[in-house]
Specification:
- The protein has 177 residues and is an alpha/beta fold.
- Helix content is 26%, strand content 35%.
- The strands form 2 sheets. Strands 3, 4, 5, 6, 7 and 8 form a 6-stranded mixed sheet that branches. It has a two-stranded antiparallel sheet with strand order 1-2.
- The longest helix is centred in the middle third of the chain and has 22 residues.
């Protein structure tokens, strides 16, 4: 967000940076926002000791045909949409200021190149589990982290990074019960 040599004249102050003993600097404080209503994602951040708020924004999860053929890119696109929608809401708040981090994520199950969406019903969920029973499939998770620095409504810096991780999961044979 800002460059520099890290050297300052005595008495010079940097907004958001606190001096500690022996000239070491603490990183600036920030507000973290989880752009997800997922109880599991919430638990992961809590377990990591992150203080955060939750702000969910409904986004269109429809994927274009080219993305359906590339599950990691599809997951990245959806994670960016989710986080980006919350970033827009934050920036629309004229009182928003300081350092903020918005975290969005998307996870999808992929078998034989086909993306399994969220089940639409109990019978659809059972069908999905039967399809995965006794086989190996992939679980693709994308995380999009957006950093916002705003000291005034008209002075905002924004940057983001998105990454994916793919796990191979093998189910044992499942019975109908």
């Amino acid at each position: 967000f800002s460059g520099g040599t890290g050297m300052r004249d005595a008495g010079e102050a940097d907004a958001g940076v606190r001096e500690t003993t022996l000239g070491e600097q603490e990183p600036p404080a920030f507000n973290a926002i989880l752009a997800s209503g997922s109880p599991r994602r919430k638990q992961l951040l809590e377990d990591a000791g992150v203080t955060f708020s939750v702000q969910v924004s409904e986004v269109d999860e429809t994927l274009e045909p080219d993305l359906l053929a590339d599950p990691p890119e599809a997951a990245k696109k959806l994670a960016e949409r989710k986080a980006g929608a919350v970033v827009q809401e934050v920036l629309a708040d004229k009182n928003a200021s300081g350092m903020m981090i918005v975290i969005g994520a998307d996870t999808m199950v992929v078998k034989d190149g086909v993306i399994f969406g969220k089940p639409k019903s109990l019978s659809h969920a059972k069908h999905m589990l039967r399809t995965l029973s006794g086989t190996t499939h992939e679980v693709v998770t994308a995380v999009s982290v957006w950093m916002i620095s705003a000291d005034a409504a008209d002075n905002v810096s924004l940057g983001f990074r998105t990454f994916t991780d793919t796990s191979r999961v093998t189910f044992r044979n499942l019975s109908d019960e």
